[in-house]
Design goal:
The protein has a single domain, classed as SET domain (Beta-clip-like). Helices cover 3% and strands 35% of the residues. It has one helix spanning 43-46, and strands at 2-6, 16-20, 29-39, 56-57, 62-66, 74-75, 81-86, 91-96, 107-108. The strands form 3 sheets. A 5-stranded antiparallel sheet has the order 4-5-3-8-7, with no helix packed on it. It has a two-stranded antiparallel sheet with strand order 1-2. This is SET domain-containing protein. It holds the Pfam family SET. GO terms for molecular function: histone H3K37 methyltransferase activity.
Length: 127
């Protein structure tokens, strides 16, 4: 259903993204990414690395790295996918927010809500 390919959305040396290999209907589960959580007070060490740009908030007191394709979804303020955290099973579930056509890049809003247009650390000048 999904694959990793070169993205035109992402720039820099790590320009990969998640793409649909088939049509995906709105509401359909796209991917379930297991997490590796860690306490927020340990994030100061991660901030010194490239991994800081890939970490997700994981509740009030933790941050997490997502396995599988989880950390490779790129950002858009007009996403075609969303995610929900399943704390009981320690996974992020990625769902189609709109119908997605085969070949389209699957994009999420890094703010966690599809309509949240708050500036992010890498593009504060855009909004």
């Amino acid at each position: 259903m999904i694959e990793i390919k070169t993205s035109k959305v992402s720039d820099g040396e790590h320009n990969r993204g998640v793409f649909a290999t088939e049509n995906i209907k709105k509401g359909e589960l796209i991917h379930q990414a297991p997490v590796i959580p860690y306490p927020n007070d340990e994030h100061q060490h991660i901030e010194k690395t490239t991994l800081a740009d890939y970490a997700f908030e994981y509740g009030k007191n933790h941050t997490a790295f997502l396995l599988g394709y989880g950390m490779l979804f790129n950002h858009s303020y007009t996403p075609n996918a969303s995610y929900q955290i399943d704390f009981d099973n320690h996974v992020f579930n990625f769902y189609a927010f709109t119908d997605i056509k085969a070949g389209d890049e699957i994009l999420i809003n890094y703010n966690g809500e599809e309509d949240n247009n708050s500036p992010l650390w890498f593009n504060e000048e855009e909004n």
